[in-house]
Structure formats: C-alpha cells, structure tokens
Write a structure and sequence with these properties.
heterodimer; A: 114 residues; 5-stranded antiparallel beta sheet; 11 strands; B: 111 residues; 7-stranded mixed beta sheet; globular
Amino acid sequence: DQQVKQNSPSLSVQEGRISILNCDYTNSMFDYFLWYKKYPAEGPTFLISISSIKDKNEDGRFTVFLNKSAKHLSLHIVPSQPGDSAVYFCAASERGGSNYKLTFGKGTLLTVNP
Amino acid sequence: DAGVIQSPRHEVTEMGQEVTLRCKPISGHNSLFWYRQTMMRGLELLIYFNNNVPIDDSGMPEDRFSAKMPNASFSTLKIQPSEPRDSAVYFCASSLVGPLHFGNGTRLTVT
C-alpha cells in the first residue's frame, strides 16, 4: 500500500519554463512534507519542506504548494535549468516532522532540455 | 564537512556470501538511518538508530539482515547469507535536527 504516490515517472521541460512535479498521499496523519533531489550515483539531497499549517513555501526558484483537502502537493521550479535534471522524491512524515519515519514516493525523473 | 560516507560504493557477490556495508555519519549527528532503494519498492527504511541505540528495525526484511552501531561514528549493515533479491542500492543517512543527510549509497549486486 503506497501512502505517497508520484504518478508521473518522468517529466521533460524546456529550459526557462516551469517544471511542476506532483505528489499525492493517502495517510491523513501526515503533516510534514519534504522534497529531495537525487542525481545519478549520489544520495538524495534535501530541497524544500512544508508543514501542514502552511499551504505554500518558497525558496528561490523552488516553491512547494500543499492542498490538504486534496491530499496533494506539488513542487514548482521556475525557471527550470538544465542542472535541475534529476530524480525528485516527495516524502512525508507525521507529528510535524519530529517523527523520524519518512515515507517516500518512487520519484519523478525531471529532464530539462537546453 | 565530508558528509555521510558509505563504503564500498559497489559490491558484487555470489549468493550465500556475507556482505557488510559500512557507514560513517556526519559528526555530531545523533540519528542514523539505513534505507534500501529498489525499482519495485522505492526508498524503504530498514532501521533507525538514535544515540547508537536501535529504535525501529521493523523495516529489516528478515533475520538475514542485521545492523549495528558500536559508536557514534560508525554503523554496519550485514546480510548473511545474501540472496539475489537483496540486490539494491543501500543508503545510509544521518541527522541531528531537521532533514536527513544521505550518503552516496552502496550498489549491491548478488549473483
């Protein structure tokens, strides 16, 4: 039973345009969400997070939106750059992030074409 | 800071052999995690240590898997005996407060 789902295995975008990566979750106890980026042959690196008390968090070119009623979050990258090409993982946890247990989605491969 | 260091980067072994994966967490981090990544199941938590004590090993697949953390700067994940279905990328991660910091993983192939 997959509690965090990333339904698009891959996404291709032109440089300079917006990339939108989506994530759905089923566990209503999740209240803290993170995005990780992973390059080949490297470990995932933390990108941005959001608590369920917010519906948006922004960090430079990266913005995460949370829709609690739909149990959906998205990561927007504007403008997209070739260096953003990587696998993006959505992750969720309970108890405001104090719970050590992260549940990951299977990832979306983003390719940004020059 | 060197980050989380894992060794070896690649391991190829034959079925039935013992495999030991190693991890050095970031200095000062008090939580350590072992994850496994496969195509079918994605990233799964195997075991979580806090202050060198195993807190949750419910993700360990079976008794063939064991993990230790003898001190704050070293952890091992052992598979004995190994099986082809153990082939995966194994990640170690550490944290103090906030997001996990992952190592670059060990790619294990069991033939």
